[in-house]
Amino acid sequence: MPAVEIAAKPRALPVDFARTALVIIDMQRDFLEPGGFGAVLGNDVSLLVKAVAPCRRILEGARAASLLVIHTREGHRPDLSDAPPAKVQRGPVEKRIGADGPMGRILIRGEAGHGIVPALAPLLGEPVLDKPGKGAFYQTDLDLILRNRGIETLLVCGVTTEVCVHTTVREANDRGYRCLVLGDACASYFPEFHEVGLRMIAAQGGIFGWVSTTGEVLTALA
Ligand code: TIU
Prior knowledge:
With about 220 residues, the chain is an alpha/beta fold. Helices cover about 35% and strands about 20% of the residues. The strands form 3 sheets. It has a 6-stranded parallel beta sheet with strand order 7-4-3-8-9-10, with helices on both faces. Helix 7 links the parallel strand 8 and strand 9 (about 180-185). Helix 4 packs parallel to helix 9 (about 215-220). The model has no long low-confidence stretch (mean pLDDT about 95).
């Protein structure tokens, strides 16, 4: 498939969709629903819910175009053996990773809160990566999966913009992938961090990648 130009900041990006994957970061109930980890920390989760519909639109578009779709989830083993003590031992004991929350143990694999929100549920055959860190490359086989498929460009969306999306984009950029971040399909508990996070990606000639929208990508896919 020839390259198609997608309007983006700081400039349009030519994309070969045959070598492009959609990566949806951590759209988990723990972050998005009342009673999850994010809400327990005192965050307004409605700020994140705004990203669900754009994520759904780009997910449907990617599936229709047979793009590789990858879902990630942040979380840990029930025995916390993969959770660094420095990550666990923060904040009040009752709000830490592994503590009991309204949707099961916080950020523990297999618990209800760890699951992806129903609107974005993975289909059979779509890789779901469980990651112990903020970045999707750290201690996962994401790079191997992408290289085996000849992927060179990532469409990235999910939550939160300045934490797991940013960390993943920085990791991907250093590994040679072009990252096109879909700004409207990302969100943060801190709107100002979301805005500045997107600006940071596109600054300095696109220091970490490109920033666009679901609408621009869907137009290019059509
Ligand atoms: N997925 C992700 O961003 N994990 C976080 O912990 N984000 C926060 O903003 N806390």
